[in-house]
Amino acid sequence: MRRARLDGLHAAGIAAVGALFLYMPVYLFVEGLNFTKAPWSDLALQAFVQGLLTAIASLVFYGRAVSILGASSGAAFAALSPVMTAVMAIPILGEWPTATDWS
Q: Is the dihedral of CA 96, 92, 46, 77 positive or negative?
């Protein structure tokens, strides 16, 4: 991002639009228009959560973390994401990871 002189928001926009153009043709080829059977409120909720919160916000925050911490430290935090998700599932969802999950 530094070499291209992009800030987090621009990088997130490029990644989101690029993913849209790469993913949607494959999805439509495999699934067709089955998503139109879902209620529009569910589709809108998924578009908001997956499109805005997950894709854009996470990339903006990741870009900011890399600019503050540096590339190697920022990458280390990204590697902890699955671990933190598993640990947070215990108090939030009451789900304990299996032995395979821990390994």
A: negative
| Stronger pLDDT, 7 or 48, i.e. the higher one | 48
Residue 55 makes CB contacts below 8 A (sequence gap 6+) with 12, 15, 16, 19
- Joined tokens for residue 41: 């409120």
Residue identified by tokens 């947070």 is 88
Query: 86-99 pLDDT, tens per residue?
Result: 888 899 989 888 88
Note whether 12 and 64 are within 8 A (CB): no
Neighbours of 63 (CB within 10 A): 21
